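So, does this match?
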Amino acid sequence: MKQRVLLAWPWLWLWLFAATAGSPSSDTFVSTTFSSSASSGSISSSSSVTKPFSLIIPTSTSSSVQEDLAFPLNQDFRFTQPLYNVSIPENSIGKTYVVPEQRMGIKLASHDINLDVRFRIMSGDRDKFFKAEERTVGDFCFLLIRTRTGNVDVLNRERKDRYVLEVRASISNGNGKSRSSTVLEADTTVVVTVLDTNDLNPLFYPTEYEATITEDTPLHRNILRVIAEDADLGRNGEIYYSFAEETDQFAVHPVSGVITLTRPLRYSERATHELMVLAKDRGALFRSGGSSRPSTAKVTIRVRQVNLHSPEIYVHHLPDIVEHSNADIYAIVRVVDQDEGVHGQIASLDIVGGDPAGHFRVRSAGGSHSGEYNIEVLHLLDRETAVQGYNLTLRAMDRGVPQRFSYKFVPVHLADLNDNAPVFSREIYEVKVPETAPINTPVIRLKVTDADEGRNALVFLEIVGGNEGGEFYVNAETGVLYTSASLDAEKKAFYTLTVSAVDQGNAGTRKQSSAKVKINVVDTNDNDPTFEQSEMEVWIDENEPAGTSVVKITAKDRDSGENAYISYSIDNIQKVPFEIDHFSGIVRTRQVLDYETMKREYLLHVRVSDWGLPYRRQAEMQLHVKVRDVNDNRPQFERIECTGHVPRYLPIGSEVITVSAIDFDAGNTISYRIVSGNEDGCFALDSASGVLSVACDLSDVKSTERMVNVTATDDTHFADVNPVHMHLVNAKRNLGSPGRILSDQGGAFECRDTGVARRLTEAMASAERNNIPSKDDEYTLTPSRYGENIHTPEFIDFPSEIKVNESAKVGTTLVRIRARDRDLDYNGKLVFCISGGDRDSVFGVDPDTGDLNVIGYLDRERESEYFLNISVYDLGRPQKSSSRMLPVTILDVNDNAPKFERSLASFRISETALNGTNVWRANATDADLGENARVTYSLVTETNDFRVDPVTGVLSVFGRLDRERQEIYELRIRAQDNGGKGSDTPPLYSDALVRVTVDDVNDNAPVFALSSYTVKIREDVPVWTVVAVVDATDPDEGAGGDIEYFLSDAMESEGYFKVDKVSGTIRTTQSLDFEMVIIEVVDVNENLHPPVFDDFVVSASVFENQPVGTLVTTVRAKDADPLGGDSRIGYTIRDGDGIGIFSIDNEEHITRPFAVVSPTLIPKHQSPRLPVAECPGDSEELIASSREFGVSTEKIWEITRIAEDSKCFRNLEDSLKFGILWKFLKLPRFQAVRGPGALGYFC
């Protein structure tokens, strides 16, 4: 039979081998139900197998399987689960059972007691810690696993925290027969988790810590972190840190071990702090029999002195330095540092600014650490090179680490010494002035500056040289140079004035400088040209060719330039045969002059004229030109070619004929002579009378005719030869025609008349006519052809008054002065000037046009009215003038801003000052007039706490002052005039700065930074743990603003907390309980022990058809925790077929049926719950279950951060929905927590 079964189903063995060859901890299971046929011995599978198991069919009997087994083959033999999770505490003693999460075992199909089910651990227990046991209750065989007894070693979670046991169940016939009968086997996996117990203490590594921090470390700054480790798990491994002794100086975070500073450090009070830090695990706090010994670590914190204070500089000024003085020390400086040791030593004091040229230095006045210094002057100082003085920047540096600096500004004011002479804008001024300039004509404005200040810079001018004639003077204050006398360029055209500028320093220190003013007196054609001779007489020979120079007329003009250019002309009325060169003055003939026929004497009027403007000046002279007769004519015979008879008997000496010659030249003497024909000397010719006479005996003359050629001469010229033809006759008789017979009694000759006598007569008549006196000879030259200066200039429409704005620009023409003079030319030419009344040199009049101009800056505030003496002069000789007074009124322009008597002011006022309290009265004045001087006050600074009266300028309190809101007011008060209306000039203003300091009154209570403080903290934190840091401020000053922290009397009496009165740090002073106040204490599940039933299984029965509420049975569990909430037990049905059919009374422990079924009962422990907002953390409970279900693991609640959208539950019903019990009690002072997190120190 056995062989048949084994051989008939070889595939079954292969499948079983493959199935059992897998890992016993496999998570894949197949549930299979086998059935066996009694007749055939076949085994079939009706369902999947949930866990590999062995099926053993014995071969030692010949009976059928059905006959040998009490357990039918068609029944499933398997564990309820392929894998079970169980737990057991470490260090458990022998016979300690593991606690499953659910019942472990095999459900039996038969209640036959002969079935023998055995469990044994096949693998996973190398150290033989565990033993499997079985216990059958009804149709279920429970698998129990416990620790073995007799083991030297125990479970140690830190060494191994998990065991995976492969458990095999086998079933055999338990009727006493051989065990080699057919057996069924099933396997399951049991995962044993070794639970931690608090068997280890925390250990520090290292055990000593050191840190060095500076004494200026900010409060709540992390200093160091101590670290302790505990190999336990969960709460047993969580460590709390605390100090062994109370201290207000430091705090240690109970969880992180970070040590922070909670009070300011002072090196001078304590340089080293030694702390002892304790480390305890949280499990020890709830261990029965008291806590374990804590681990300790030594913490040494050394305080390093730091340079807390910067040096303070105090300056004692000596009197102001006078420039160029030999002062050595300007100021004494004391430097103090409040630090101690090297940090309080002064390393140096230096000048780091304001003295680029190195005029000063700092020198120690004592020892190296005395802190006394002198500011010394190294070089002579010149105020003019540093007009604003010096602003030295001192830097004091200590020897601390890091070094600290402080700065101090030291102003150096240099008193002025009159060490600078006035300086002209130029060394040499060159200017031109017309010689016609009237007296008091402005010439030039001399600009002088003095680099000194005050009276040392006030300069007066005077002329010290070059003005011997007193032609000029200078306004000592304005520097305008004027004419003081009439100028004459012909007398002196150039002046070189030496003008001296003298400052008005103290006598003996005055400085002087000078400048040259070169004045060129410009000629204005005030002189007539003059001839060297006013009348001249010259001769000229007749018959000179045209263009012959007669004479050179010389004239000169004392003027210069074009005014001295002259030209000549002949100004005769009648035409004259002369002309004059216009430039050279040479008089020339225009034609040949003939003495005999033309005018023999000419009177020429020669005019000379200059080229001056606007009028030419002229002069005349008389030039007498006389024509000198020149022997330019030959004698001419009146008769020529005479023929006559001359008797021979004429005695010697008898006149034969008289020849007569005429010479047109005046005064010439004619002499006659025989040229030829008288070689024998028979005739004689009287040279004077021209009588030809017989000089020999004619009878002796052989020839009968004689030709005597005679001539006439004026000793220069000879007349043409005039032949006298004579017939010598012997008898006295008339010869008849053509000639007469001359005899010694006056015989006649026949001659040809030449007409000379007639021509002479005509010439003489013409000469007589030409030499009749002309009109040019009739008048004589007058002293002046242009008339005398008869009339005085007259003003036309002279203004009665002139008004001008003081803003008139230089060059503005105010009015044109008009005048007239009835004389002509220069006698009527007028020039204008201001003769007086212009003491500020601000007006000038154009000498030619009469325009009255502004030449200086007007200032009504300096002078409001002028009376100008306007004079007008003509240029005639003698010069005539007229004068009139012209009032000039300077009109006000809004050119002056109001000026405060005090532009800077500082006041103090109590913050309790009432509304309307006067602080200060501003007083501003305006130098203008009228509306331009009316001042209105206003407050420029935007504030509602003060106001200023617009009329009186009184600054007063307008609102409620609060120093804590604003302590210092920088008020800008504006004084504005009312000018500018109707003009382009805007209103002018000036500001005064008033500093009002509000004095403090202790009128404010301290105020916390937050209106309420909320913190969550575990109730098991160590004593002296920092719970919160509160921060309050008091805006008052001084003692009124110093804050001390303290708890209210109610909180103080409870004794749970204390607050550091200096820093506001709140610490616990004793262990907390869940029912705390204000500070929210999160409950920690302190019940270490879960509830335990008397037995892990209870069996009960009930009749069917019992009414609802029928009592079935009573179960009881115990809790080893102390009496109270942690030991109170509740019950609930958690699993099984009875859910919905049975109920259990949570208080009375009684089950009541709803229907008939077997329930599973679980006692449940209710933990108290805290009222928190809805938090992400879990709130769990310790549950004790029946042995068939196991025991759930525990988890301690953690402190969690409150979300921003948190909710508060004000009643128990709402809070229980979240497993939290709320208790709230309000505290009067502390309502919030400040710490590393937003809502709690441990968040």
Summary: The chain has a mean pLDDT of 79.
